[in-house]
Design brief:
This protein has two helices and seven strands; from the N terminus they run E-E-E-E-H-E-E-E-H. It has 140 residues and is of the alpha+beta class. Strands 1, 2, 3, 4, 5, 6 and 7 form a seven-stranded mixed β-sheet that branches.
Length: 140
């Protein structure tokens, strides 16, 4: 019997702070800017993983307000097949990069830094439509 391979579950959070969103600059490959997020620990609720990752990478306590979607394209992460459960949340304060984030900053949605890692440009386009229409993106 072949050894089954499954995608690795991750979380990402579009964190709204003071009219902008928080992005982290990654310390590790792939380099660039990304939403705060990471791998869900074994035995951890997805929502708890989302809150933990935001805290670890930005120092912010996030309140999750919506499930934006699940992003699962096998090519979304060049390292391996990861799927992301992606939330929208709000936080207060000034983010500070920590853990595997070199830095964390708040950016207006119309002035995002480049390059964006993974499929985060797609996620942020879906987030923009969500903010404009109130509609959660339909599955692809």
């Amino acid at each position: 019997m072949a050894n089954p391979r499954n995608p690795y579950p991750t979380v990402d959070v579009v964190v709204e702070v003071d009219g902008g969103i928080v992005l982290i600059e990654r310390n590790n490959e792939p380099k660039g800017w990304a939403l705060p997020g990471g791998f869900i620990d074994y035995g951890e609720l997805v929502e708890d993983g989302a809150r933990r990752e935001v805290m670890e990478e930005t120092g912010l306590t996030v309140e999750l307000t919506a499930l934006l979607g699940v992003y699962s394209a096998p090519s979304r992460d060049p390292r391996q097949h990861n799927l992301s459960v992606t939330y929208v949340g709000t936080a207060e304060g000034v983010p500070k990069g920590a853990d595997d984030a070199a830095r964390a900053e708040v950016f207006p949605l119309d002035a995002l830094p480049e390059p964006l890692c993974f499929d985060h440009a797609e996620i942020l386009a879906d987030y923009r439509r969500y903010k404009e229409t109130g509609a959660i993106p339909k599955p692809k």
